[in-house]
Design a protein that fits this description.
Helix 1 packs across helix 36 (about 1040-1050), helix 11 crosses helix 12 (about 330-340) and helix 35 runs antiparallel to helix 36. Strands 11, 16, 17, 18, 19, 20 and 21 form a 7-stranded mixed β-sheet that branches. Strands 27, 28, 29, 30, 31 and 32 form a 6-stranded mixed β-sheet that branches. The chain has a 4-stranded parallel β-sheet with strand order 2-1-25-26, covered by helices on one side. It starts with 5 loop residues before the first helix and ends with a strand. Strand 23 (about 650-655) and strand 24 (about 655-660) form a beta hairpin. It is α+β, with helices and mostly antiparallel strands and about 1150 residues long. The protein has 38 helices and 36 strands. Helices cover about 35% and strands about 15% of the residues. It binds one RNA strand of 85 nucleotides through helix 10, strand 16, strand 20, helix 20 and helix 32.
Length: about 1150
RNA sequence: GCGGAUGUGGCGAAAUUGGUAGACGCACUAGACUUAGGAUCUAGCGCCGCGAGGCAUGGGGGUUCGAGUCCCUCCAUCCGCACCA
């Protein structure tokens, strides 16, 4: 057999490709373009394992195939080189992450090159390269400078918003913005100082900084976005994650929720990915409905000042006007208020001067009566009281009085802030700031824009998707975190509620999740009125209601919702059937939408769907609610308290963020002494000296998350060296978007969603022409590792406990099983005796299960390279390894009957620590890159996950050698004939071409490989060595086995690379058959085969088929009831 | 709980629109050539049965002349989301 020397051949052509720059891509407009993209890897220290190239091989085949078909193919590669592992490594070793990253990239490139990929390395991008992240920062700037206009349904420059504000305030602005955005007029806008204006704009910008509840990972010292948290643990590293409120950079991805969901219809992506994204966005249609709060004032009027004997009407009116004071005490209150105003303390006066006239954007009153009291300052709209603590509140009596007063105020719905005199004297700025923050926070949490005093009705708004079931409401549940809870809680319930809220706050995500089954909650003591039925229903708090979804309040309908049902059962609340077809059991609610409404007042008799419509009309008409679309998706947290990421191009002045100018970009990562947080808990960038502008304004300390750089890299490849734009107009115009994208499905709700978001944004702003970046997406499956285990007992003494005087005994698979099942010691006693000749082991019993449990870790991973395909362990290598690794030198084995040691196997993720990583380098060396490429494709459908198994690789290797053999004689001389090809040979070639085109088109690359094998087997049988057949086949094989094809291509006398050949044209005429073999079925079972001429008509086919002896036999001579003839396919005879 | 995917020989898998189930490869068996074989070639290889033949695509049911493929139902495994009102 001819010999194909893959090592020589592959090196030779890899060198040639590099020298000739065969894979360099021009932005050439004469050819049609085709853009093939792999998800770029994070260059980890472990290098590539055989699972990584699966997708790369597939995309390389597609790229090369398209190139042969005459396309100008862009097939780039780069590195997502910012990320946690390099930083963790840096923390441990002090090694700069850039150095680690660089080393790893070198290794990756080498491995990729060895596999013969056709990447244009001149277009390589690295997200951690300043010339790249300059443009990531630039895009950040664009987002900061934009707002989302719901009217035009796209992002617009912030200047257009400022213009509107200056002209007419925000009354007519329909934008995606913070929930707490207050209404203001043009006059307000103009009167505000710069900082206030900037703060207002932050509520609209697409990237913004705001007080947010975040996923905080203490172990990593950073926040994480929702997609980086899995089951309450960080995706990277698996550390616990808790909820925490802190100011954070965020991206307003929710602005695009609707378009991100809708445009999934435009792309050819796997349905599971689309479903995951839809699910993540979580659009639901429903309604918000207001429930009025019924809350009798439970406080007896016995404290504070005494009631007036005779209030004058003037004073009463004055008090009544504010709706806050007790009218019966009008005279006294007014008197006190006046007196206090005339004689303010220095501190009160100082504060008043800073707060009056809406200086902090909200109106304030001083010395204001509330019930029986006078408070120092009050923001009526926010119901925030500010008390200046004068220092005379020290006596026990006074303290009790203060507490009662605080309770009353709280109960009436006021929040009280106490300010110390010293604070006002010493740092009034920070006091003002605190008040401002509080006001902003309250504004955010109460969407209502009207001024409302406690005299106004207090209401709770709920979100529901089943407003039809509103007559079935028997209680209401609030999230424990809801602001209004404090105000609703009656004194009797106060202790219980506070305890519950406290517990809820401190529970980690993980605890909360693992405890889904337990029903818990507390009654607040308050009631609300069902706006439809007028019924009074109790208000509870419970942690099954999430503060972050909808309004954080739920109208509970136990008959239709299982959680409400469980809650009702637990607290013995009524369960009201509201649909006639509802089947409610002792343990289950029925959420059906089938049937007619019952017990539902005005909705009775309607179907639930009609009832929803009618109820929606009703709430709008009555002004008690509005239909509403809700999304599950939240804005994406964008800052990370880490070092190894893109710096955010922002500096601060007076606490307000400002962007750096374009010519200041890139803002490069500073050097730091350590990659840890500072002593005050600030991010690592806080360690950098001079991390501020030339004017001394401090830069932002957090960096961008991993997904920032990967959200737009596919555009950079189009024009990677451009330092004027992220990519030129021409390049963007020519390459448009990715035609074929391949990568893992694990990025479904991360990278794949964020990229779509940024693409849509760049589209809105006119920078690009497409609003989806990848036309077609394919998910390659994961290749798992198959781990091998040895089972060792680490020295067992006579009582079954570990004894270090005795060597570790390793059990082969079957003896171990047997030992466990019968507790049989026979096998180890000889060994034990060998080391302890004086001990008599006859009566010793060992419970193997106990030994396993007590002597944990006896099941040990064995490096898979020491284990053969039939699970047999190489004892010598193993001993050596154990010795170097564990320092053991006494090892005993208990073997199978045939003297072999057989390992246990298990499929797991490939990882270094499991010793199950299969390195492609070894396989490339042994079999060649072409073999590995084709074998990986041959394993099965590309999108399927499967455990790696090297066993079949010989088959593919054999195939390549057979193909080589067609060109060579026994002495390995190149012998190709120029004789014309025979009909049969042409049939083989064109049969292959046809299948190849179909298979590559639908990415069925495993069957492509099969088809090559079939063709080569047939040609070998024909002893075909004709150029007319072999040359086209060489071209067709080039995408799969580029090295071998290149070698043969040149041997055939061609000078240029096979990559520039034309793909052979398929000619159907070679496949036409004169005769067709018809399978003949009798009653659906195959009974005979008939060779028939291809041009017979159905009638003739039927006659011929029936005449066949086997058919005669099976029909037993009866006349067939029916004969089905499918021309060119099959005949079926029914008897 | 919700959503999705998958289930075919000893193993990886084919069967694109309903038309000969198991292509191709691995492993295995026998043989040939060989000093040798972890090279190469030939033949065999779903299960039961000596055979004729029967049974077989997770289980059960249905539609059809004909079902791995379509419909219903149940089971198992994997993935994603998970108190989303």
């Amino acid at each position: 057999m001819a010999e194909y020397k893959h090592q020589e051949v592959e090196k030779k052509w890899q060198q040639y490709w590099e020298e000739q720059q065969v894979y360099k891509v021009k932005n050439d407009t004469s050819k049609p373009k085709y853009y093939v993209l792999d998800m770029f890897p994070y260059p980890s220290g472990a290098g590539l394992h055989v699972g990584h190239p699966l997708g790369y091989i597939a995309s390389d085949i597609v790229s090369r195939f398209k190139r042969l078909k005459g396309f100008n193919v862009l097939h780039p590669m780069g590195f997502d080189s910012f990320g946690l592992p390099a930083e963790q490594y840096a923390i441990q070793t002090g090694q700069h992450p850039a150095i680690t990253t660089d080393t790893n990239i070198k290794r990756y490139k080498e491995q990729l090159t060895n596999l013969g990929f056709s990447y244009d390395w001149s277009r390589e991008v690295r997200t951690s390269d300043p010339s790249y992240y300059k443009w990531t920062q630039w895009i950040f700037k664009q987002l900061f400078n934009s707002w989302y206009n719901k009217e035009s349904d796209k992002a617009e420059h912030i200047d257009t918003l400022i213009a509107v504000f200056a002209k007419e305030g925000n009354a007519n602005v329909n934008a995606v913005c913070d929930e707490d955005t207050p209404a203001f007029s043009a006059k307000d806008w103009e009167s505000w100082p710069e900082e206030s204006q900037q703060k207002m704009l932050l509520k609209y910008r697409l990237t913004f900084i705001a007080e947010t509840t975040v996923n905080w990972c203490p172990a990593l010292g950073t926040v994480l976005s929702n997609d980086e948290v899995k089951d309450g643990f960080s995706e990277r590293g698996g550390h616990p994650v808790i909820k925490k409120t802190m100011p954070q950079w965020s991206m307003r991805i929710t602005a695009y929720a609707d378009r991100l969901a809708a445009d999934l219809d435009k792309v050819d992506w796997p349905e599971p990915i689309k479903d995951m994204q839809r699910n993540w966005i979580g659009k639901s249609f429903g309604a918000e409905v207001d429930f009025k709060v019924l809350s009798p004032n439970p406080f007896p009027k016995e404290r504070g000042l005494s009631e007036d004997a005779n209030p004058s009407s003037k004073e009463s009116d004055f008090i009544a006007a504010w709706k806050t004071g007790n009218p019966k005490m009008a005279k006294t209150l007014v008197e006190y208020a006046r007196r206090n105003r005339k004689n303010p303390t220095d501190q009160e006066d100082a504060l008043w001067q800073r707060l009056r006239n809406k200086q902090i954007g909200s109106k304030v009153r001083r010395q204001h009566p509330i019930d029986d009291f006078i408070v120092d300052f009050i923001f009526l709209k926010q119901q925030l009281v500010v008390e200046v603590d004068g220092g005379y509140h020290d006596s026990a009596e006074q303290q009790e009085f203060d507490k009662a007063r605080m309770d009353l105020l709280n109960h009436l719905g006021y929040e009280v802030m106490v300010v110390k005199n010293e604070d006002v004297d010493e740092h009034i700025e920070s006091v003002i700031n605190k008040i401002q923050t509080k006001i902003d926070e309250i504004d955010k949490n109460s969407p209502s824009q009207q001024e409302k005093g406690p005299g106004d009705e207090v209401k709770i708004t709920v979100f529901t998707t089943r407003i039809d079931t509103i007559y079935g409401v028997s209680f209401m549940v609030l999230a424990p975190e809801a602001e209004i809870v404090k105000a609703l809680t009656t004194p009797e319930q106060k202790a219980e509620v506070e305890a519950y809220v406290e517990v809820a706050k401190n529970r980690s995500e993980r605890e909360r999740m693992s405890d889904v089954k337990t029903v818990s909650g507390v009654f607040t003591g308050s009631y609300v009125i069902n706006p439809f039925s007028g019924k009074k229903v109790p208000v509870y708090i419970a942690d099954y209601v999430l503060a972050g979804y909808g309004t954080g309040a739920v109208m509970a309908v136990p008959s239709g919702d299982q959680r409400d049902f469980d809650f009702a059962k637990h607290f013995d609340l009524p369960i009201i059937q509201i649909i006639d077809q509802q089947k409610i059991t002792d343990t289950e609610a029925d959420p059906t939408k089938e049937g007619k409404m019952v017990n539902s007042g005005m909705l009775d008799g309607l179907s639930p769907l009609d009832a929803i419509q009618k109820a929606n009309e009703y709430i709008v008409e009555k002004g008690i609610g509005t239909p509403k679309v809700n999304y599950r998706m939240r804005d994406a947290i964008f800052g990370r308290q880490r070092y190894w990421g893109e710096p955010i191009p922002v500096y601060f002045e007076n606490g307000v963020p400002y962007l750096l100018e374009d010519d200041q970009l890139p803002l490069e990562l500073p050097e730091v002494d350590k990659y840890l947080p500072t002593e005050d808990g600030e991010p690592p960038l806080g360690r950098a000296d001079d991390w501020k502008t030339a004017d001394g304004a401090p830069y932002e300390l957090t960096t961008m998350p991993g997904w920032a750089g990967s959200s737009w890299y596919f555009f950079r490849y189009m024009d990677p060296q451009n330092d004027q734009e992220f990519a030129s107009k021409e390049a963007l115009e020519y390459w448009q978007q990715v035609d074929f994208y391949i990568g893992g499905s694990e990025h479904a709700t991360g990278h794949l969603l964020y990229s779509r978001f940024w693409t849509k944004f760049l589209y809105d702003m006119g920078f690009i022409k497409v609003d989806e970046y990848a036309k077609k997406l394919v998910n390659q499956g994961m290749i798992q590792g198959v781990s091998a285990f040895s089972i060792g007992l680490g020295g067992i003494s006579e009582d079954g406990l570990p004894n270090l005087n005795i060597p570790t005994i390793f059990f082969s698979k079957n003896p171990w099983r047997k030992s466990i099942s019968d507790g049989n010691l026979n096998m180890i006693i000889p060994i034990l005796k060998k080391y302890n000749p004086e001990v008599d082991f006859t009566d010793v019993k060992i419970n193997f299960t106990n030994v396993l449990a007590n002597n944990g870790g006896v099941l040990r991973h064995v490096p898979i390279e020491m284990v053969s395909g039939n699970d047999e362990l190489d004892i010598e290598k193993f001993k050596e390894w154990r010795k170097s690794w564990a320092g053991e030198y006494e090892i005993e084995f208990i073997m199978e009957e045939d003297g072999k040691y057989i390992c246990q196997r298990e499929t797991e993720k490939m990882s270094k620590s499991k010793y199950n990583v299969v390195n492609p380098d070894n396989l490339v060396e042994k079999y060649g890159a072409d073999t590995l490429r084709m074998y990986e494709m041959f394993l099965g459908p590309i999108e399927q996950s499967k455990p790696w198994n090297t066993n079949g690789i010989e088959g593919v290797y054999k195939f390549l050698r057979k193909f080589w053999g067609l060109f060579h004689d026994k002495q390995d001389n190149f012998v190709v004939s120029d004789d014309p090809a025979s009909k049969d040979e042409l049939k083989v070639l064109h049969g292959l071409l046809k299948k190849l085109e179909e298979d590559v088109e639908r990415l069925s690359l495993n069957t492509s490989v099969s088809n090559f094998m079939i063709a080569v087997n047939e040609l070998q049988a024909m002893k075909c060595n004709k150029r007319a057949i072999l040359e086209p086949m060489t071209i067709a094989l080039a995408p799969f086995a580029p090295h071998l094809a290149e070698e043969l291509w040149h041997a055939l006398g061609n000078d240029s690379t096979v990559c520039d050949a034309d793909f052979p044209v398929f000619d159907a005429s070679h496949l036409e058959e004169d005769t067709i073999e018809y399978p003949v079925m009798v009653n659906g079972k195959m009974r005979a085969k008939v060779q028939l001429s291809a041009d017979l008509n159905p009638k003739e086919i039927e006659e011929q088929a029936l005449a066949h002896p086997n058919v005669q036999k099976w029909t037993e001579g009866k006349t067939p009831k029916k004969v089905i003839v499918v021309p060119k396919k099959i005949v079926n005879v029914v008897v």
